[in-house]
Every structure is written in structure tokens, then in C-alpha cells.
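call fold(seq) -> C-alpha cells
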Amino acid sequence: MAITAAFVTPVQDPDFWWHIRTGRWIVEHRALPSHDLFTYTVPGHAWTDHEYLTEVLMWLGYSATGTIGIAIGFGILTFVGFLLILAASRPGRQPYVIVGLGLALGAAAGGPIWGPRAQMITFLIACLELYWLRGYLAGRSRAIMWFPLVMALWANLHGGWVIGFAFLGVAFVSEALKWLADRSDVEHRMRMQRLALVGVLSVLAVLATPHGLSLYLYPFQTQGSAAQQRLIVEWFSPDFHNSSLRPFEAMLFLLIAGFALRRPSLYDMLLTLLVLGLALQSVRHVALFVAATTPILISTWSEVWRGGSARRGWRLGSSPTSRLMAGVTVLALGLIAALVFSRIGGSLADEGSLTVQTYPVGAADWLAANPGVGTHMFNQYGFGGYLVYRLYPAESRRVFVFGEAALMGDELLNSYEAVQSLHPDWQKILDKYGVDYVVDNKDAALSNVLRTQPAWKVAYEDKTAVIFVRQP
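ret:
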């Protein structure tokens, strides 16, 4: 109950705004965008909208309930993911204190990632797949055979579907190595064959999208983009000087210490290495690390506890339940629920003020009220989605760049960086694209330099954004 407060948060993902605008376009046109809609810089770029179904659902939810409904909806998705993590941990077999602490640490470790964003759909489905795989490898369930149907849905919801094959591959390799070590064990060979069948059917299931074969290439275009890896914060490696990543750091140390004390299974070791490599490469993959390793952390330290308690007589049990203890428990749960709802309510109540502080709300108002000013915009990358949401389809208000980085392409992203970072040719780039007005953060380096240029004049300014207009 307590960790729910970490999942229901205000909308702070700048991509949210262009996602809902795209969803609205799809609903209105009853079609998918085949090329860029929102910029004047790359209108000819082909668009593989890998999350079109999520965008439609986000727009329908937003139009019916606003940002509060979106925040609650994605919070529920994340919470269901943690219920699957809990189920994969087999809580009835583990000390409840270790289960609770493990879940709390996992929720804290993913703190920078949770929120109303399409990535939470991949987190939820990854949790489901990992739960099914753990049950299958333990011989408890064959639910993983249904995974190709899930993959067909996943491929229409979010581009993170590719991680599903990585998880299947880890399970297949672990079973293959066990079979090679003991070829008389028929069970490992049969599991290999079934996992291979699930993998082949899942590959075919990805074709059940409007994009067909082009969707297979999308994840590799993103991973192979040097500009995205260099410029977009989510793709940066974790900065452990950031206090919000300390719980993730703690999980790393606890996993290493746990593996030193209790040897992990081959599957757990391979899975941990996979998600650890992903999480150290990119902070956005910390959510996958939490999904995969929280059950491992709980199981490992439960084994450590059982070994130590057997030797020393330690206990995590309790006395027989009394009416007094039952009453105390009910009161405690009531207090926790009240605190959680209070925390969520207070957080969502700040939505409006946070939007004004984070996005160019006033600047968008000014641009909408002055349609004759400017023809080609240069905008800060994080502002692009909100400006698309507010100003599309006005021709003179099409943005320079927005958050669909794969659609933008490395050439445009590099041009954007050159201007924003004031490379020697920054003015030539603005001239190349015919930029005659700029929407940027108030105190950005580019804004500070434009204030000194006679050719540029401040047309609007508030605490968040400033608009410069080129003088004739």
C-alpha cells in the first residue's frame, strides 16, 4: 500500500504532450501518421509510430479525465507490475519482513522512472513475462506458452517489446547449458524446445501491427543512434552522485553480497547480468532491472536468513494473533492508507503549478495570441512536445524538434545540439532553417547570448521560457 504513493505522480514527462496530440490525430483521421506531422525541419521523414495504440488510449483517457486520470491509470499499471513481482517472489515461502523490504527497495530504486509514461506498459508486460518464465522453469506453470499473444499486443503498445526476446533468450540459454552439462536430463531439452517455439511464434506475432517488417528495425535504430545516446538524458548512464539513484546502488550491492553468500541459479545469474548491463548503460532501463532482480534479491536474502537463523535460532515469527494485535493491525493499515491517499492527493493537486513551472505555458499563450509573429521556430527540445500539443496544426507554429528522436534523425539532433550548445556555426544553422523566432529556457546559454545580439529582441518572457524574435 505504501509504495503506491511512488507510482501515482503528476505528469512530468515532456513526451506526454506530443503523445496525446498524436493520439488525437489518429482518432480524428482514423489512420496512422506515415511521416512527421509536427516539424517544418523533417516533414519527409517516415514515421514508424511504434506506440500508436498507447497514444490513442492516452488521448481517450486524457480527454475523459484529464491529467489526474492519466496519473492514476499509469500508477495502477505500475502497481500491478509490482503485484507480479510479489507473486514471482513467492511470498508465502519467504520471511515477510524480507519480502516487504525487497519490494520497498525496488520501488525506491525505480523512483526516477515511475510516472505517467508509455514506458510503464513495457515494465508491466516485462513483469508478466518474467513471472511466467520463473514459473515455467520451476515446473509450476506453462503459462509462458501464451506469450506470443501478449507479444502481439506489446508490439502495438510500445517499442520496448524487444526486451521480451532478451528475457526468452536468457531462459533458453540457461536451459541449453544445463542440458549440455547433463544430456540425460530430458526435461531441460523439452523446455528448450518449447522456449524456442515460443520465441519463433513471438517473432511472427510482431508482424501483427500496421507497420509490418519496418517495426523490427525500430529498436535497433534507437540503440544505434549516437546522437540520441549522447543528447537525451534518459539514455545516459546512471549518475551515482544523484541521490535519487542511491536505492538502485543499494540494490546492486545487496545483489552482489547475496550472491557471495548464496550461489544463485544459472538463470538468475544470467538474468541479473543482462539487466545490470542494460541499467548501467542507460538509466531508463533501471525499471527493467527492478522487474527482473527484485524477486532474486528477495529469494537470495531469504536463503541467507534461513541459513543464519537455523544456526543462531533467529526468528521473524509472531505470537498467535490476538484481538488486540488484530485491532492494531487494522488501525495501522488505516493510517497507512490515509497517508498514501493524502500524499497522492497533494501531489496531484500540484499538477497545474508544476506544468507552468516546467513547460512554456505562457509562451504558448503568447504565440497563440500573436499568430502573425514569426514563421520558423527554434525551440528547446523538452518544450517541443508541449508546443506541439498547444499549437499544432498552425503552419507558423510547427516546431524545430520534439521528443520522437528516432523520427528527428541524427542530422537534425546534431544541428539542434550545435545551436543549443553555441557551437561556432550556430548562427549559420539558424539561417539554414530560416529561423526567425526562438522559444527557449529563460536562463539557457543560447538565451543569454541572444540577449546580447542586436538582431534579436525579447518578445515575451516569464519565469520558465523566453521568446526571441529576429529583427528585420
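The mean pLDDT is 93.
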